[in-house]
Amino acid sequence: MCEPVTITTTTAMYISLAMSAASAIGSIVSQSAAQKAQDAQQQQNTLNAQQAFVDNINQSNAALGQQDQQEADNTTATQREGARRRATVATSAGEAGTGGLSVKALMDDFSAAENRLIGASQRQTQWNRTGAVLQLDGAKTTMQNRINSVPKGTAPDYFGAAMKLGGEAFTANQTAGAK
Fold first, then answer.
1. Secondary structure class of 140 (helix, strand, coil)
2. Cα–Cα distance between 4 and 6 in angstroms, integer?
3. Among 4-8, 77-81, 136-140, 144-148, whose mean pLDDT is lowest?
4. Which of 66, 68, 92, 139 is most buried, by CB atoms within 10 Å?
5. Residue 175 pLDDT more than 80?
6. pLDDT at site 174
7. How far apart are CA 168 and CA 174, in angstroms?
8. d(Cα 146, Cα 43) in Å, to the nearest integer?
9. pLDDT in tens, 98-129
Protein backbone atom coordinates (compact mmCIF):
# COMPACT_ATOMS: atom_id res chain seq x y z
CA MET A 1 0.00 0.00 0.00
CA CYS A 2 1.11 3.59 -0.56
CA GLU A 3 2.30 5.88 2.12
CA PRO A 4 -0.24 8.45 3.27
CA VAL A 5 2.34 11.26 2.87
CA THR A 6 3.02 10.31 -0.78
CA ILE A 7 -0.70 10.31 -1.57
CA THR A 8 -1.11 13.70 0.07
CA THR A 9 1.91 15.16 -1.76
CA THR A 10 0.80 13.68 -5.09
CA THR A 11 -2.73 14.90 -4.54
CA ALA A 12 -1.43 18.36 -3.65
CA MET A 13 0.68 18.35 -6.83
CA TYR A 14 -2.39 17.51 -8.95
CA ILE A 15 -4.48 20.13 -7.19
CA SER A 16 -1.72 22.70 -7.76
CA LEU A 17 -1.51 21.75 -11.45
CA ALA A 18 -5.29 21.94 -11.83
CA MET A 19 -5.34 25.38 -10.21
CA SER A 20 -2.50 26.56 -12.43
CA ALA A 21 -4.31 25.25 -15.51
CA ALA A 22 -7.53 26.96 -14.45
CA SER A 23 -5.63 30.19 -13.84
CA ALA A 24 -3.93 29.98 -17.26
CA ILE A 25 -7.24 29.28 -19.00
CA GLY A 26 -8.91 32.13 -17.13
CA SER A 27 -6.09 34.45 -18.14
CA ILE A 28 -6.39 33.45 -21.81
CA VAL A 29 -10.19 33.88 -21.75
CA SER A 30 -9.82 37.29 -20.12
CA GLN A 31 -7.15 38.37 -22.64
CA SER A 32 -9.30 37.12 -25.51
CA ALA A 33 -12.31 39.11 -24.26
CA ALA A 34 -10.16 42.22 -23.88
CA GLN A 35 -8.85 41.76 -27.43
CA LYS A 36 -12.38 41.46 -28.83
CA ALA A 37 -13.50 44.57 -26.94
CA GLN A 38 -10.46 46.55 -28.13
CA ASP A 39 -10.97 45.39 -31.73
CA ALA A 40 -14.64 46.40 -31.58
CA GLN A 41 -13.69 49.84 -30.23
CA GLN A 42 -11.04 50.24 -32.92
CA GLN A 43 -13.51 49.24 -35.64
CA GLN A 44 -16.17 51.65 -34.35
CA ASN A 45 -13.56 54.42 -34.13
CA THR A 46 -12.58 53.75 -37.74
CA LEU A 47 -16.21 53.90 -38.87
CA ASN A 48 -16.77 57.14 -36.94
CA ALA A 49 -13.64 58.74 -38.38
CA GLN A 50 -14.62 57.73 -41.92
CA GLN A 51 -18.15 59.08 -41.45
CA ALA A 52 -16.77 62.36 -40.12
CA PHE A 53 -14.55 62.60 -43.22
CA VAL A 54 -17.54 61.94 -45.52
CA ASP A 55 -19.51 64.59 -43.63
CA ASN A 56 -16.64 67.06 -44.15
CA ILE A 57 -16.62 66.29 -47.88
CA ASN A 58 -20.39 66.76 -48.13
CA GLN A 59 -20.25 70.01 -46.17
CA SER A 60 -17.40 71.32 -48.32
CA ASN A 61 -19.18 70.34 -51.55
CA ALA A 62 -22.37 72.06 -50.38
CA ALA A 63 -20.43 75.22 -49.53
CA LEU A 64 -18.67 75.16 -52.91
CA GLY A 65 -22.00 74.67 -54.67
CA GLN A 66 -23.41 77.69 -52.86
CA GLN A 67 -20.32 79.73 -53.75
CA ASP A 68 -20.58 78.67 -57.41
CA GLN A 69 -24.22 79.73 -57.46
CA GLN A 70 -23.35 83.03 -55.79
CA GLU A 71 -20.62 83.64 -58.37
CA ALA A 72 -23.04 82.88 -61.21
CA ASP A 73 -25.64 85.22 -59.68
CA ASN A 74 -23.02 87.97 -59.23
CA THR A 75 -21.79 87.52 -62.79
CA THR A 76 -25.33 87.70 -64.17
CA ALA A 77 -26.13 90.77 -62.07
CA THR A 78 -22.89 92.46 -63.16
CA GLN A 79 -23.57 91.69 -66.82
CA ARG A 80 -27.13 93.00 -66.54
CA GLU A 81 -25.93 96.18 -64.85
CA GLY A 82 -23.26 96.64 -67.53
CA ALA A 83 -25.79 96.10 -70.30
CA ARG A 84 -28.20 98.55 -68.64
CA ARG A 85 -25.48 101.21 -68.38
CA ARG A 86 -24.36 100.72 -71.97
CA ALA A 87 -27.97 100.92 -73.13
CA THR A 88 -28.44 104.14 -71.14
CA VAL A 89 -25.32 105.64 -72.72
CA ALA A 90 -26.38 104.52 -76.20
CA THR A 91 -29.89 105.91 -75.72
CA SER A 92 -28.63 109.21 -74.31
CA ALA A 93 -26.07 109.55 -77.07
CA GLY A 94 -28.69 108.73 -79.70
CA GLU A 95 -31.18 111.24 -78.30
CA ALA A 96 -28.50 113.90 -78.12
CA GLY A 97 -27.36 113.08 -81.61
CA THR A 98 -23.81 112.41 -80.46
CA GLY A 99 -21.51 109.47 -80.97
CA GLY A 100 -17.95 108.79 -81.83
CA LEU A 101 -14.93 108.16 -79.68
CA SER A 102 -16.21 109.67 -76.44
CA VAL A 103 -19.28 107.40 -76.44
CA LYS A 104 -17.13 104.41 -77.39
CA ALA A 105 -14.68 105.25 -74.58
CA LEU A 106 -17.52 105.41 -72.06
CA MET A 107 -18.90 102.07 -73.30
CA ASP A 108 -15.43 100.53 -73.11
CA ASP A 109 -15.04 101.87 -69.57
CA PHE A 110 -18.31 100.20 -68.53
CA SER A 111 -17.23 96.93 -70.17
CA ALA A 112 -13.84 97.04 -68.44
CA ALA A 113 -15.44 97.66 -65.04
CA GLU A 114 -17.83 94.77 -65.70
CA ASN A 115 -14.94 92.46 -66.61
CA ARG A 116 -12.98 93.50 -63.50
CA LEU A 117 -15.93 92.68 -61.24
CA ILE A 118 -16.49 89.33 -62.94
CA GLY A 119 -12.76 88.52 -62.76
CA ALA A 120 -12.63 89.38 -59.06
CA SER A 121 -15.62 87.14 -58.39
CA GLN A 122 -14.02 84.26 -60.33
CA ARG A 123 -10.71 84.70 -58.45
CA GLN A 124 -12.52 84.63 -55.12
CA THR A 125 -14.31 81.43 -56.12
CA GLN A 126 -11.01 79.84 -57.14
CA TRP A 127 -9.42 80.82 -53.82
CA ASN A 128 -12.39 79.31 -52.02
CA ARG A 129 -11.94 76.09 -54.00
CA THR A 130 -8.25 75.97 -53.14
CA GLY A 131 -9.08 76.53 -49.48
CA ALA A 132 -11.68 73.75 -49.61
CA VAL A 133 -9.15 71.32 -51.11
CA LEU A 134 -6.65 72.15 -48.39
CA GLN A 135 -9.35 71.79 -45.76
CA LEU A 136 -10.26 68.34 -47.10
CA ASP A 137 -6.60 67.32 -47.06
CA GLY A 138 -6.53 68.32 -43.39
CA ALA A 139 -9.75 66.39 -42.74
CA LYS A 140 -8.21 63.32 -44.38
CA THR A 141 -5.16 63.59 -42.13
CA THR A 142 -7.41 64.05 -39.09
CA MET A 143 -9.36 60.95 -40.08
CA GLN A 144 -6.18 58.89 -40.39
CA ASN A 145 -4.92 60.16 -37.03
CA ARG A 146 -8.24 59.23 -35.41
CA ILE A 147 -8.07 55.75 -36.89
CA ASN A 148 -4.49 55.31 -35.75
CA SER A 149 -5.24 56.59 -32.24
CA VAL A 150 -7.03 53.40 -31.20
CA PRO A 151 -4.83 50.32 -31.68
CA LYS A 152 -6.08 46.83 -32.45
CA GLY A 153 -6.44 44.48 -29.51
CA THR A 154 -3.52 42.36 -28.34
CA ALA A 155 -3.90 38.62 -28.89
CA PRO A 156 -3.92 36.36 -25.83
CA ASP A 157 -0.50 35.22 -24.63
CA TYR A 158 -0.79 31.46 -25.19
CA PHE A 159 2.95 30.95 -24.94
CA GLY A 160 3.14 32.81 -21.61
CA ALA A 161 0.26 30.74 -20.23
CA ALA A 162 1.93 27.52 -21.39
CA MET A 163 5.25 28.56 -19.84
CA LYS A 164 3.54 29.42 -16.56
CA LEU A 165 1.73 26.10 -16.52
CA GLY A 166 4.94 24.24 -17.41
CA GLY A 167 6.82 26.06 -14.67
CA GLU A 168 4.12 25.21 -12.15
CA ALA A 169 4.21 21.55 -13.24
CA PHE A 170 7.99 21.47 -12.95
CA THR A 171 7.91 23.05 -9.48
CA ALA A 172 5.15 20.73 -8.32
CA ASN A 173 7.04 17.71 -9.66
CA GLN A 174 10.27 18.85 -7.96
CA THR A 175 8.42 19.42 -4.71
CA ALA A 176 6.74 16.00 -4.89
CA GLY A 177 10.02 14.28 -5.75
CA ALA A 178 11.84 15.96 -2.86
CA LYS A 179 9.51 14.47 -0.29
1. helix
2. 6
3. 4-8
4. 139
5. no
6. 75
7. 10
8. 11
9. 878 888 888 899 899 999 999 999 999 999 99
Contact assessment for residue 139 and residue 51, using Cβ atoms and an 8 Å cutoff: no
Mean pLDDT confidence for 134-159 = 89
**Sign of the C-alpha dihedral computed for residues 107, 113, 116 and 121 taken in this order:** negative
Angle at 31 between CA 25 and CA 37, to 5 degrees: 140
pLDDT at 142 over 60: yes
Q: Are 146 and 45 in contact (CB under 8 A)?
A: yes
Specify whether the CB–CB gap between 139 and 59 falls below 8 A.
no
Cβ atoms of 154 and 31 closer than 8 Å: yes
d(CA 129, CA 119): 15
| Distance (Å, whole) CA 129 – CA 61 | 10
